[in-house]
Design brief:
heterodimer, A: 151 residues, alpha+beta, OB fold (Dihydrolipoamide Acetyltransferase, E2P), 2 domains, five-stranded mixed beta barrel, B: 656 residues, six-stranded antiparallel beta sheet, four-stranded antiparallel beta sheet, 11 strands, globular
Amino acid sequence: MLKARHKRFILIGIGLALIGLAAMLILNAFQSNMVFFYTPSQVAKGEVPHNTGFRIGGLVEMGSIKRGEDGLTVHFVITDTAHTVPVEYKGVLPDLFKEGKGVVAQGSVGADGLFVASEVLAKHDENYMPPEAAAALKSAQEQSKTLVMPK
Amino acid sequence: MIPEIGHFSLILALLVALTLGSFPIIGAARGNTVWMGLAKPLSALQFALIAFSFLCLAYAFAAKDYSVVYVANNSNSQLPLQFRIAAVWGGHEGSLLLWALILSVWTLAVSLFSKHIPDAMRARILGVMGLISVGFLLFMLMVSNPFDRLMPAALDGKDLNPLLQDPGMIFHPPMLYMGYVGFSVAFAFSIAALLGGQLDAAWARWSRPWTIMAWVFLTVGIMAGSNWAYYELGWGGWWFWDAVENASFMPWLVGTALIHSLAVTEKRGSFKAWTVLLAICAFSLSLLGTFLVRSGVLTSVHAFATDPRRGVFILAFLVVVIGGSLLLFAWRARTVGRGGKFDVVSRESFLLANNVLLAVAALSVLLGTLYPLFLDALNLGKISVGPPYFDAVFAPLMAPAVFLMGVGPIARWKDAALPELFVRLRWALAISAITAIVLPLLLGNLTPMIGLGLFLAFWVFASSAELVYQRLRKSEGGLLAGIAASSRSWWGMVIAHLGIAVFVLGVTVVKGFESEIAVKMHPGDVAHLAGYDFRFDGVESRNGPNYTANHGQIHVSKNGVLRTVLEPEKRLYTVTNMPMSEAGISPHLIHDLYASLGEPLDGGAWSVRIYHKPMVEWIWFGCLMMAFGGLLAMSDKRYRLNKQAKSAAAGQGQRA
């Protein structure tokens, strides 16, 4: 029979090993499932990854929504007022998806520059702009300012 | 005038809370019985004042008083009365008032049902709850006053967010808050134990029913929220790993660990410091959850730039409560004692493993919820961590926890033997393993996740059956006598564990076998899914009190026999000009049929989403079983007042 002290060591050892394993698992899962956000300007400059998915956000450009024959494939353009990204999405769009309104799409960009979205998010509040979309517009505005007024 | 009276009542409540948070605690330290005795009447007074203030706000909503900013922002004259009342907690300020009201209800309840608790401890418990109340009332009065006036008054209100105009809004937030705030009782018990240096089996027995009650409310609250999201959002999902959901799930995970740890503290006197730490964490996460959801920080971490005082107050409040209680814990934890020893293989160690797994799971949710916020706050870029992360983390963490649920209740306290456990559970193991492989093969879809889910669900069913069978076999005199021979808290545990199994079964089946299609349908078109024919019969206009709607009809038949009619709706709320989908659902024990309208296309056609969701209702039914198990455990006779007074006296006699 083991001594009580040894048993306690075993218990603590097993516990620590398992917690370490869990921590590794969690951090690994975290790292491999992070989705980064980019603005249309960053997409235009080619600063985006090509092998993994990411999110873009901005406004749905006025007059850009075009529906396919099947009624489910939709093409539209996301703009941050400085640059635009053409997007393709197949499926039913959220209630608040509208031209001129904020939108965030998740997907990946192909060699032809077309962003194929797997998910389109538009949050449920007429006045509420998705934070990512608001950030994209803001950064585009700031960049255009620095272009207009170089120091 | 009435809003001013409500505001004044809130100020009086703050004064009462300040008194409640100081005199009884000081009295307990000095042995001043008069000061300690103040706690009970002050609790009643505090409740009366906050309840009155709450009624004033509700009256302002009911009477359409749009000279109050909060009412004007969250209500509208077209809004039906039940939603005008529910709109009281539809925004930031009002939900804080609901929080404070519920805290005062719990405080009152503790003061009324604590005759058996020693005076000093009761005074400390109520005092700590008074201090929490001070924080919330101060916050409201300083930066989030629901009674602020609008000059000149608005002609009409901006309306409640249409998403919230649903019966779910009437039940879900109060239930959830009852759970959140209920953990303040466990928290106060723990702080009182640290202050008084007394933590024994009697203490655990006093705080257990309160903790279980809070857990029951939280379970039902989360379940109601999940069900609401399922039928309201029109995506057929029941859990999105959204930050708002995570905020309620973290206290649930830690609270679940807490009720198990309390069991060990009561039965074996072990895990004392750990129990106290869990109680502190459960309440801290409840606070964090409240502020995450209600402060606007999720919409934008920079929301506080518009009103930095709110952010500073919230951060300061969290630091004081969490930091202060953890400091107190570090300083006083040794006084509560360490408790009995136990073997590597014993019920204690299984429960410890369950606790660690639940705590790690809560931490992983915390990481996934807060890390993106931190990055954003520090301007280090925007990221999101969605369902893939949580799915990847949760299955491996929860699978061993669920497996241990089968072993723990059968293992002996202090010292169990693995071979004996194996012998007792070999049939349960065999049955669940075979089911996990055969059932998916019969249904034609065997994946590792489906196999694992089914194995765990049937493992809990089978091992619980073994547990019950052993209990009943030992007792003499018929089945009913056998059932009565075991305590209600034991049966409560069995039922709650079976609830987990039902939940796991539901999740596994719906994830493994659900199917969906999105189609463009003209009136008369038929879509096929899961052996059913869905005939779209077009839409007709219908008007609600504050919306116009396109009301669709879909006839569902199988082999030419009409089974049900789904009636999805697309509403346009006129005040906010916001579209909303109302799904058409035919709920059933075996499967749900679910349809929602997308958008109108050319020539009377609509895009339509149709889902087949096998056994999805089991998910919520499992939650209800867990809650029922909790209620049953709470009603155990050893927690009842008169019995408790005697056994507490006996317990004290033993110690002496």
